[in-house]
Amino acid sequence: MYISFIFMGNTTLQTFELLDAFLNNKEVPVKEFYIAEYPKTKYYILKNGGTIDNANDVFQEAYFACWKKLSSGNFCPNNRTEIEAYLFTTAKNKWIDQTRAVGKRKTTTIDERLYQLEADETALNHESNEKEQQLNITLTAFENLGPACKELLTEFYFHKMSVREIAQKLNIEEASAKNKKYRCIQKLKELALEKSS
Q1: Angstrom distance (rounded) from CA 142 to CA 192
Q2: How many Å apart are CA 60 and CA 72, to the nearest integer?
Q3: Quick check: 152 and 181 in contact, CB under 8 A?
Q4: In this predicted model, what pLDDT tens digit does every residue of 54-85 receive, in sequence order?
Q5: What's the CA gap between 23 and 44, in Å, rounded?
Q6: Residues 58, 91 contacting (CB under 8 angstroms)
Q7: What are the start-end ranges of the H helices in the chain?
Q8: What pTM does this model have?
Q9: How far apart are CA 143 and CA 152, in angstroms?
Q10: pLDDT tens digits, residue range 35-57?
């Protein structure tokens, strides 16, 4: 009888039946209402960037909220259309809230990444400044080396000559050139440490 009244479109009786179904937990009419109203919410959510799962979750939450509101007596609709409108508006608002929350999380993530990039950049600048300072100290120490050490280290590090080639150029044994290079590097380190302290 209830279904035939729905198809006849008798709004007054339909509303009474639907409210009665909600208030008295009548499974069949409530289920029919659920099935009839779900497609609107699904269409809205899919159209606004959601998935079928989103639509299911949001509609169930909205439906439960609508049921609670009707059962508590806080919502007294005059007809079925008002219940439909309330249900759809609730679902729509829940979806808007969810998408805002996701947008806020994305913004937070972007802000965190920007903060991390700034922190990395600061660290890089600090590291770069330290390296520049160290280079200046080393160059000053190099200028204070004796001429023989300056020449040997220049040939080795800047002209990329091997120890053997340097030994031949200086007309000394290769082992002597190695020892001399070692002593020059040690002297350079000592001078650099003096400058940095």
Answers
A1: 8
A2: 18
A3: yes
A4: 988 999 898 888 888 887 777 778 888 888 89
A5: 28
A6: yes
A7: 2-8, 11-23, 27-47, 52-72, 80-143, 147-153, 163-170, 174-196
A8: 0.45
A9: 13
A10: 888 999 899 999 988 899 998 89
